[in-house]
């Protein structure tokens, strides 16, 4: 009996030493908590509607493409018509050190633009990224072939009889071809009818532009593009624009106003031989506008150093600061001076 009692006690102790059965688990139920709306993140508001090439606010963007017009810039061509209405104006150097403009239009429709001259290889870098209509008096055969190889560009040529281009009687040839943009816009084909995507980046307000926030004060910018091209720009606080001169003479429009720009951009890129010959075998230059290089951006009476980037002919131009952040321009017109690296120069004071 004592043995049996001991065995029972031992078994009872063993039974008590076993792990207890796990308690039944209660399923987890997730209930959305009620959150004070004032403590949630505010929704991102839609930005204002702006013209893609100027950043100026507008109720509705015109459903039409950009037009890039090749405009002469010699003494015989001045004063030009329509430059004051361009969204962007590029100044480049062609053969014989002569400057020419590529005036880009989208937001405004001037009555007349000109004098219009022939296309050059550098024009492709400007027109292709915007899928623009490239307006010129004509081009040599090999240049027309190059234009035809870029589906991003629609050629509008006076030599080819395009509507909207004609000669005026008050000037002598070849300085008398002028463009009617209202008519030319009607010629846009299905592949070149959409508004341009903006390459340049704009602040919502002028005082938020990169140069205004981070730049150094500047009153005058004198540029030596070539032996025949020495534009100068002076800051005018009254109009909040940079006013242009050709050397020491004010650069005027046909309407009698001085040419002005909200933003001025200087780009340094190497000038190269395009392999297209001009009169007497003269070299027709192109720009090595691929990769990256130095730039200067002037806005609001201030300047800031920048870097330009461009992957290829049809790729957009980027302007970035030392940290790689986009340069923001003030809403308005922009003039871009394309300097020949190593030969062109500028001074700021």
From TrEMBL:
Signal peptide: none annotated. Residues 16-48 are annotated as: Disordered. Residues 53-191, 222-336 form the DUF3048 domain. It comes from the Bacteria. SUPFAM superfamilies: YerB-like. Residues 26-37 have a biased composition (Low complexity). This is DUF3048 domain-containing protein.
């Amino acid at each position: 009996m004592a043995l049996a009692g001991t065995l029972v006690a031992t078994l009872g102790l063993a039974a008590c030493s076993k792990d207890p059965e796990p308690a039944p688990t209660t399923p987890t139920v997730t209930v959305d908590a009620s959150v004070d709306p004032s403590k949630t993140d505010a929704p991102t508001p839609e930005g204002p509607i702006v013209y893609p090439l100027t950043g100026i606010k507008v109720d509705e963007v015109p459903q039409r493409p950009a037009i890039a017009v090749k405009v002469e810039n010699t003494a015989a061509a001045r004063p030009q018509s329509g430059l004051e209405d361009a969204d962007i104006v590029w100044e480049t150097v062609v053969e014989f050190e002569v400057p020419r403009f590529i005036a880009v239009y989208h937001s405004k429709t001037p009555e007349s633009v000109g004098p219009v001259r022939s296309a050059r290889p550098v024009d492709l870098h400007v027109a292709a990224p915007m899928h623009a209509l490239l307006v010129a008096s004509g081009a040599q055969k090999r240049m027309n072939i190059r234009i035809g190889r870029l589906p991003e560009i629609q050629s509008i040529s006076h030599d080819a009889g395009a509507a909207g281009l004609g000669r005026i009687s008050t000037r002598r040839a070849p300085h008398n071809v002028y463009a009617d943009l209202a008519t030319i816009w009607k010629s846009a084909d299905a592949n070149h009818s959409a508004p341009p995507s903006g390459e340049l980046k704009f602040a919502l307000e002028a005082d938020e532009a990169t140069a205004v926030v981070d730049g150094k004060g500047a009153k005058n910018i004198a540029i030596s593009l070539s032996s025949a091209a020495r534009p100068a720009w002076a800051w005018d606080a009254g109009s909040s624009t940079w006013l242009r001169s050709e050397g020491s003479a004010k650069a005027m429009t046909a309407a009698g106003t001085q040419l002005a720009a909200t933003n001025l951009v200087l780009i340094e890129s190497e000038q190269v031989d395009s392999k297209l010959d001009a009169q007497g075998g003269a070299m027709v230059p192109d720009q090595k506008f691929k990769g990256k290089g130095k730039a200067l951006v002037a806005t609001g009476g201030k300047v800031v150093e920048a870097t330009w980037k461009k992957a290829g002919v049809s790729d957009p131009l980027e302007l970035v600061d030392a940290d790689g952040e986009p340069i923001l321009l003030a809403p308005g017109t922009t003039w871009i001076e394309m300097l020949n690296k190593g030969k062109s120069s500028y001074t700021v004071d």
